[in-house]
Amino acid sequence: MTATGPVLGIETSCDETAAAVLGPDGAILAEAVLSQDGHAAFGGVVPEIAARAHLAHLPGLVARVMGQAGVEFRRLGAVAASAGPGLIGGLIVGAGFAKGAALARGVPYIAVNHLEAHALTARLPGVTEGGAPFPYLLLLVSGGHCQCAVVEGVGRYRRLGGTIDDAVGEAFDKVAKLLGLGWPGGPAVERLARDGDPTAIDLPRPLFGRPGCDFSFSGLKTAVAQIVARQPDGPLPAQLAADIAASFQRAVAEVVADRAGHAMAAFAPASHRLLVVAGGVAANGAIRAALTEAAAARGFAFTAPPLRLCGDNAVMVAWAGLERLRLGWTDGLDHAPRPRWPLDAADMHPA
Ligand code: KG4
Ligand code: ZN
Fold first, then answer.
1. Which domains occur in the chain, in start order?
2. In the prediction, which pLDDT does 2 show?
3. Is the overall model pTM greater than 0.90, yes or no?
4. DSSP character string of 179-229
5. Which residues does 93 contact at the CB level (< 8 Å), separation at least 6?
6. Residue 325: pLDDT above 90?
7. Ligand 1 pocket check: which of 15, 139, 172 to mutate, most ligand atoms within 8 Å of Cβ?
8. Is there an atom of ligand 1 within 6 Å of 85 CB?
9. pLDDT digits (tens, 9 = 90+) for 87-110
10. 311 close to ligand 1 (CB < 6 Angstrom)
C-alpha cells in the first residue's frame, strides 16, 4: 500500500513534544520539536509535568507544522504516533490526539514503536549514502535504552545484546549531576569535556573485551561518584571537572566501540555491511568518531543520523509510520499505548 497523502507524525514519549509532516515519498515537509524546560529543577524528567506539558503544547505544534507544510487535515494519508515504550501519561496524550485526528478524517492510525522509529531513521531518504537496505546492524543508545540488534525488516528485530544495568544516556545524565551540570546531562558533559584531558583520570571500562554484545555502565558511574566524593566540600575545581567529563566520555566511547565491534563480528553478512547508530547519545561527537573507526576496521559502512534526528523527534515517527503503511500495517483505534514495548516483541509485525 502506498500512502495516499502526507503523514503526520507525533512524538510525546518522554520530554520532547514533537510533530512532523512527511510527504508520501518520505520528504520532510515540516518538523518541530519543543524540549520541555520544566524538569531542570528536578534533575530528571517528571512524568506528570511532562504529560501536562504535552497536552498544553501538542495541538499548537501540530497546527504549526501542518501550516508550514501547507497541508490541510483532509489531505492527510495517515496519522502516526509513538505508542510506546515511554512515559504512559505522555503516550496517552500523543496517541489520543493522533487517533482523534485519524478518526475525524477517516484515515489510518499507526501506533509506532518509539525504538523502531529510532531504528528506521537510517532509511529516511538522504540519511544513509546509497540507502540502508535490510538487514543492517543497529546500535541504539539513548536515555532509556542501550542495545544492539539486527534490523531484518520493518517490525523484525533480532536482539544481540543490551545493557545489564544503566542505559548509556542515563550514565551521562548521572555524571552530569555529579559534576553539577544542567539537564539533560549528555550535551553538557560533551561541552565540558572539550576543556578536559581524556587521559587525566583512569576510569574502568566495564565489559571491555568480554565476549557478547552486552553493556554495563553503573560501575563507571560509581567510579566517577567516588572521585567526586573524595574532593573537599564545595564546587569541584573547573579543570578537574573538565578532566572527569573528558575521561568519562573517552571511557564510554571506547566501551561502546568495543561492544559494537563484537556485534559486527556476530553479524557479518557477505555483502552490504552497515552499522547504524541511533538515539540521543548518537549525537555525541566522541562516540560517533569511535564508531566510525570501529566500523571502518571491520569493513562496515557507518550511518549516524544528522544531529537533530538523533534525539527524540517526530520525523522518525512519521517515517516509521510510512514504512508500516507501505506494508499495509495500520492499527485500530483500540490500540493501547504501553510503557514497555521491546523491539523484538511478537506483535511488532503481523503473524
Ligand atoms: O533518544 P533520546 O532523546 O530520548 C530517549 O529515548 O531516551 O535520548 C536522550 C538521552 C539523554 O540521556 C541525553 O543526555 C543523551 O541522550 N544525549 C547525549 C547527547 N545528547 C543527548 N549524550 C551524550 N552526548 C550528547 N551530545
Ligand atoms: Zn528516544
1. 7-121+309-348 (3.30.420.40), 135-304 (3.30.420.40)
2. 67
3. yes
4. TT--SSHHHHHHHHHTTS-TTSS----TTTT-SSS-B--HHHHHHHHHHHH
5. 12, 51, 54, 55, 58
6. yes
7. 172
8. no
9. 999 999 999 999 999 999 999 999
10. yes
